[in-house]
Amino acid sequence: MDVSLRRALGIAALFGLAGCSSGMTSQSPSLPSQNTSAFVHRGVPFIPFALRGGLSPHSIHPNYATNASLVFEADQEETAVNIYQTADLASNPAPIATIHVAAGCPYGLATDKKGKTLYVDDNCGGNDVEEYAKGSTTLETKITDGISNPLGAAVDEHGTLYVSNYPATITEYTKGTTTPSKTISGGGLTDPFGLALDKKGNLYIADFGADAVFELPAGGSSVTNLNLQSLGEPIGLAIDEKTGILWETGGGDNIVNVYQLGGSTSPIETFSGNGDPYAVSLQEKGKPKGEVLESDLGKDAVYAYAPGSYTPYATLTNGIELPTGLLVVKP
Description:
Radius of gyration: 18 Å
Helix content: under 10%
Order of helices and strands: HEEEEEEEEEEEEEEEEEEEEEEEE
CATH topology: Neuraminidase
Shape: globular
CATH architecture: 6 Propeller
Structural class: mainly beta
Mean pLDDT: 85
Strand content: 35-45%
CATH class: Mainly Beta
Distance between the termini: 35 Å
Strand order of the largest sheet: 3-2-1-24
């Protein structure tokens, strides 16, 4: 989809269609006719209301085991989070469980360091972050204060939750709270999306509107543009905490870039996506440590990369419709 069309559709969704609670009004732009059933945007997603009334084809699944590495796939079109066993990816398995969000559609995903809580950004008018206990598909609680069209999520070693919102803010929540302790804006933030943390607790922010990656120092209140080169509308970020390797998905240019934090601003590796690289996640603990998962909206698929490899060893399509968020983790 053309980038300008994505942007126009996002604005229309925010002010004219998505039913957001900001109280703002705007004249929706004239949009070209499209025959696709759902749109994903560089901004606020829009799902036709006809898709919002029922359950995904997987229906309701029971709770799930957490004794091995798992892949969580947020799916806009299914308004659900599908859960897979990482060890089975090569066989293109069906989900072992599915979480159906309470409203809207899921985007950013994160867990705390002990895997006790799964956080799900609920966009498409949902305007909350939902919390699920380890191994459970039942909603436990939700955060609404400070949340506006959430797109990205990350949790540091102290349990602080970071959420990227549209309009452009980063909200922080101290462990166990539902009211933001800090709200970050300005400094060039335009359309913050994917979030990732390094081993020192510094937060990295993919901003497709600014065509930049920003750093928010641990405990800081202002962001700095890293001035990374060769970016193409950055959407997703993932960091290997041990090596400082940063993966960035650039859907605008159909590329995936890999950088060395603290090194050159040029990528150490760049390879082509499959139409629209989107979400990305890297496993930090357990086996296989360093595993990378990347979604592509051009193929409605998720690709798995072995540690240190830039060629996927597996392609996951079973149960996937529109993969807008990813998390690979050993809970």
